[in-house]
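New to this. Look over this protein:
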Amino acid sequence: MIGRDDERARLAGLVTAAAGQALVLRGESGVGKSALLDHVAALAADQGHEVIRAAGVEAESDLPFAGLHQILYPLLPHIEALDEGHRAVFDAVFGQTEGRPPSVMTLGIAVLDLLSLAASQKPLLVVLDDGQWLDASSADVCGFAGRRLTGSSVKLLIALRSDVPSRFDTAALPEEPVPALTQTASEELLDACHPGLDTHVRRIVLDQARGNPLALLELPPFLGGDRTGRGPAGTFAFQSIPLPRRLQHVYGTRVEALGDAVRQELLRGALDGVGTSAAAHTPVRRYRMRDADEAVAAGLLQTDAAGGDFVFRHPLVRSTVVQLATPNQRRAAHADLARIHHDDVERRAAHLAAAAIDPDEEVAAALEAAADSATRRGAAVTAVAWLTRAAELSESHDGRSRRLSNAAFTAGYAGLLDQAQQLLHAELPTGRNESPSSVATAAYMSWYEDGDVRSSRRQVAAAIEKLRANGGREAPEILLRLVNLLLGIEQYAGEPDSWRRTRELLDSLGDLVTERSLIYRDAWGDVVLHGAGLAGRVERALADLSELEPWDVMRLAVCAYHVDILSQYRPHLQRIVERELETGAMGVGMTMLHLIMLDQMAMGEWDEAERTGQRGLDLMGSHGYTLLAQQTRAYLALVAAQRGRAEQARELQAMVDAWARPRGIGFLTQLADAAGTAAALSEGDYEAAYLHAIGITSPGTFTPYGHQAARTLLDLVEAAVHTGRSEQARRHAVAAREAGLPAVSPRLAMITYGALAMTATDETEVAEMYERAETHPATAHFPFEAARIRLAHGIRLRHTQGPKAARRLLTTAAETFERLGAATWTERARAELRASGVSARAASAHLSTLTWQERRIADLAASGLTNKEIGERMHLSPRTVSSHLYRVFPKLGITSRAALRDALGKAQETVES
């Protein structure tokens, strides 16, 4: 190779590197990327690597996983050695099963395992040419895998055209630019390939090629004949055209000189994705060009050495052939190809769609089937495009409406809200969305984009009633979609009368409503009224997470939050949230971010919660999910309030309230009131806290279908106690017990016992209720509420039994608040410690060298939990728990786990002395 010493050295380093890695070669068309790929493939083969080659093809850029098929096909013998889960993923990709669509993350991990397995026998090099034409699904998976090759012996090399956007542009893979040749190297290459060239022509070639190797090879024959640039167009006119177009012009003159039969062969090959030699071997049966020796002689085709088939010499030849064909010629070629691929659902449909002009129900049905296939394989964007084209080709209004509605719903689910809106408007230009599917899509979008719960609720309920009137069994999937959507809207509206009507509507549907939807109804509605036994139903529904669709996991996880058992499912949510966001399932992914944030808030991981919230806020703003963005602000307001950042909390509270209250979104207005209550409590403004709290629910009652009514039980009671409203405080605590809240959720049990203890006058009841609250297992999962209960208990003990009796509880509360970052609560607890005769600094000196996480792990280990059990509670691996304990032992001056309890106990005894 001439003039490529630097690039060859870089590629040699890639091949010889011990660790796996990926590299992108980027340069203009014809600059020599393919030649460099050929060079490195030969080099790797000589050094004992297995080499897999694939190439993107423009004609296949809309076929999901077409590129991945090329990469996986040579590795099929290794798939049988994978576990059943990974085999099932590949079965779905190859269309062998009708399981749920694999996500980028799931498929990427399976591909990584397959590549690693293949590379365990000998190093593996995957070479991908023309990556800019790779279909989106394959490019996403390749990017995911390419970022995670470290630790394997797999190398990935991708060539991209610099003038064509691709999915790899944002893949964050290292790049090596392939620039034009220097003047010296250009002259050397030209003289080697075209010796004895006329001086004038040589100068023109060098000037026009500008260091592009393909141009240096192809321009001399073109300019050396009658086309030296002295024709009518002139040298200047030809030179002003971009180089790829000039080369296409060169190839075009050769194509135009071919006979009609040969040109038709080339056109069918180009439209069916026949590539260069690097892409010739794929699992997909492509058109085989025949009787095309004339094109070989013209330098347009070459014969693949391995298979003997005709392949295009360069991708520019392929695109030139297509551009020179008339529309009728292209449609005729697509029709021929559709007949050839009669047994390939997606490829046949794509060719039929390209061949059709007028409405054709058979073609529309074929496209709809192809869209279903693409959706099952995780290619929602492709499915939207095919459903839209199917709608265009529908012969009836009902068929067009149904297909556009399905396209809009799929686009909305994929986070393409603008496209979904356009599709809805295209369905019925009058704006009347009559079909149940379009009602679901329109309501989903207006709910998430504008927070329109009122009209959305009416439209969805009316659509359900219409389906019920028709028996409801003709479109069970649409009915289920509408039912779950209505329940979600009701959750946000939080309006008692409307909830009662919805429950009656669902009752009238009988067995058409699934058990999962009934769980959603009870959990999203009112856990005070319908929470008995609900936690068990949620746990049973979530028993086999691997069998659930992502949206069902998300919905059931929301139910788990309402009954305060979300923590055990957070690890799964954290594993799958990235795949949902990467595959475009934005609504599901963003709600999962909410759930992760909520559990981080509950567990006292407030820094992490704020980071999760900010990430979600950025995503929601960029994708137009206004409702979820406002909900995130409400959660951030709560965190700020608990940390004592009252000004920030009130600013966020005001934003949420101003947006949500006019729209009647009770879920958010109650969250705003809860943030206001928390901010006032953190400042010690108990009167303001009480006024905010009774805006959520009145003392002694729990507003029906009020999401925060039970959750703010402790807030209302504490504010009432501190403002002298002892009767109201007691009435509210007793109402919680009588409503059965301790049986609904672990958190509600702990705070109910705490509220009863704070309001009791009988010392026996006080002691019993505080004991129940402080020893409840929920204290590990809700440290902020537990610390508040201990603080209240410590204050009471200081007044009733003296300072010494209060010190242990006050010290524990102060340490917890300090670890959480609750500044104002920390200062309040320290003030109580000082009043009990202990320096707050001295009280925690014995444990000050332990981090918050180390102290928590030490406490759990001292209680007898194993590393695995501690890890499950704190969402850490057993190895990480072990590492923390290894650091804890020397800080406490001990050498074994058995000494933990005594070491921690001595520290507490010192505090109490």
